[in-house]
């Protein structure tokens, strides 16, 4: 998505910082429509929390194909859990076959720091893969405090992370291909 700025001219330099803040608050988000035609996507998807994880994959795939990606240009590599997503993602990225790699999984907070540690490891790993392999990666991991929050983000229509990951992947892949 791109932001369009309304013109704002502060009356004096004392209002400059306030003017910038006001302009940012007035920014309108507009949807950027991108085509996935001719683009290839790798998806590293965790199986843990299977119902929710599968919904993420389905929404992601539906969004990619609706935007013009061919089914044969999308490869899904299933892994046991979210921690293993990076191992699959690096393999996909370094294969040279994909324009963007998407990591999809669900991490639910428990009583210990385990979920936070896993989420941070995956976030850092996907970032490193993008830098090292030169292929954009998308963090499509739902990190939720409870099952209800995860359901909203995996099954819902308003904040569906599978769909959002696909949209980000299309935009990043097109950007890397200079479309």
Task: Offer a few descriptive terms.
179 residues; alpha/beta; Rossmann fold; 2 domains; 6 strands; disordered N terminus
Structural write-up:
The structure is a single chain. The chain has 179 residues and is α/β, with parallel strands linked by helices. The chain folds into 2 domains: 1-31, no CATH class; 41-176, Lumazine/riboflavin synthase (Rossmann fold, 3-Layer(aba) Sandwich), CATH 3.40.50. It contains 6 helices and 6 strands. It has a 4-stranded parallel sheet with strand order 4-3-5-6, sandwiched between helices. It has a two-stranded antiparallel sheet with strand order 1-2. Strand 5 (100-108), helix 4 and strand 6 form a beta-alpha-beta unit. Helix 2 packs across helix 6. The chain is globular. The relative contact order is 0.18. The model is unreliable at 1-30 (pLDDT under 50).
């Amino acid at each position: 998505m791109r932001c369009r700025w309304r013109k704002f001219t502060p009356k004096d330099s004392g209002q400059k910082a306030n003017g910038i803040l006001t302009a940012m608050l007035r920014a309108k988000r507009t949807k950027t429509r991108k085509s996935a035609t001719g683009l290839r996507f790798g998806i590293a998807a965790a199986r843990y929390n299977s119902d929710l994880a599968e919904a993420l994959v389905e929404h992601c795939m539906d969004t990619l194909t609706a935007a013009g990606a061919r089914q044969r240009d999308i490869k899904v590599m299933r892994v046991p859990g979210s921690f293993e997503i990076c191992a699959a993602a690096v393999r996909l990225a370094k294969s040279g076959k994909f324009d963007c790699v998407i990591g999809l999984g669900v991490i639910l907070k428990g009583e210990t720091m385990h979920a936070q540690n896993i989420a941070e490891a995956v976030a850092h790993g996907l970032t490193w893969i993008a830098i090292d392999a030169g292929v954009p990666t998308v963090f499509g991991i739902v990190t939720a405090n409870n099952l209800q929050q995860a359901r909203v983000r995996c099954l819902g229509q308003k904040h569906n992370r599978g769909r959002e990951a696909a949209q980000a992947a299309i935009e990043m892949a097109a950007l890397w291909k200079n479309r």
